[in-house]
Amino acid sequence: MGFSTRQIHAGVRPDPVTGAINTPIYQTTTYVQDSVDEYLAKGYSYSRSANPTVRALEHKLAELEGGADCSCYGTGMAAINAVFMACLSAGDHCIVSDVAYGGTYRLATQVFSRFGVDFSFVDTADSEAVAAALRDNTRLVLTETPANPTLKLTDLRAVSALTREQGILHAVDNTFLTPYYQLPLQLGADLVVHSTTKYFDGHNATVGGAVIAATPELDERLRFVQNATGTIMSPQVAFLTLQGCKTLSVRLQRQSASALAIAEFLEAHPKVARVCYPGLPSFPQAELARSQATGHGAMLWFEVAGGLPAGKQLMDRIRLWTLAENLGSVESLVTHPATMTHADVEEAERHRVGITDGLVRLSVGLEDPEDLIAALDEALS
Questions:
Q1: pLDDT tens-digit profile of 1-34?
Q2: Phi and psi based region of residue 178 (left: phi greater than 0; alpha: psi -120 to 50; beta: remaining)
Q3: Which domains are seen in the chain, by residue range?
């Protein structure tokens, strides 16, 4: 079956009691057992361990990513936390893409480092740099590609080959492209992480996270952490995310087409200093973008001529584009990473990896692209 068919039908069945086409919200704490000897005969005992609405979403995401199974969490950061907890112990070493979501950097440097885990933030776009950073105690490589917010790409085949050879796990944050455009497990990765808050939800209605594992054994490690820490997704969030999944492909097609049109407009504008979008011929890794993904997504960034003051003026005055943290929704959003999503990353580190103070990040929504371009043109003028 094709992706659009699977995004609607995978993991869900009509309710056996009523025939309801949507998976019900199983808002329950506990589940009645038939007898002591038949404990768990129906698969559920307590909703911290498993819930039927959440399991429907987990089955759907596992099938879309081509994994053995999936575990869902209360937020995207709870999903990253579960990966760290399932894969790392005191004394272990972990490599993380040097450009990654600010929350990932904060979790690594301010939480797990306190418990004896050592992190190296490496330019994973350079597979030789990854190879040079590997140690005898390296247990995990976490890559984010395209990276947030610079859109730098990691060659997933090359990094996965390195980690597989050394017996190291490779986890990929696939939030920006989703399985519609990129399938890291097919390229050799062991784990795929998502903030379901973004494109799977698509409507600014929920926060959630997911980890898809390539093997049942890896999924069991994650599910143990999920149950032990209680960082579960609620059934209401799972229900809403299940509905968002049904339109993922059509939303991304429209959003990506609009993103390309906006990127082309900005690249030709005299008041724009730089534009970055993987679909542009000027994108430094255009060949890699084409080779490991089937589309370029709906995220781009640019810098206004005049630097930070001009950029702030644009973000404060622009209409239609909403100044807010988040991405992937039907509403177009403008974000200033240096003061918003990556504020916890030290200034020197931000500048080192290319997150300048004047960088303006755009998440393109479903509005008419002509209106979005007109609003940008007005703000730039």
A1: 999 999 999 999 998 889 999 999 999 999 999 8
A2: left
A3: 3-245 (3.40.640.10), 248-380 (3.90.1150.10)
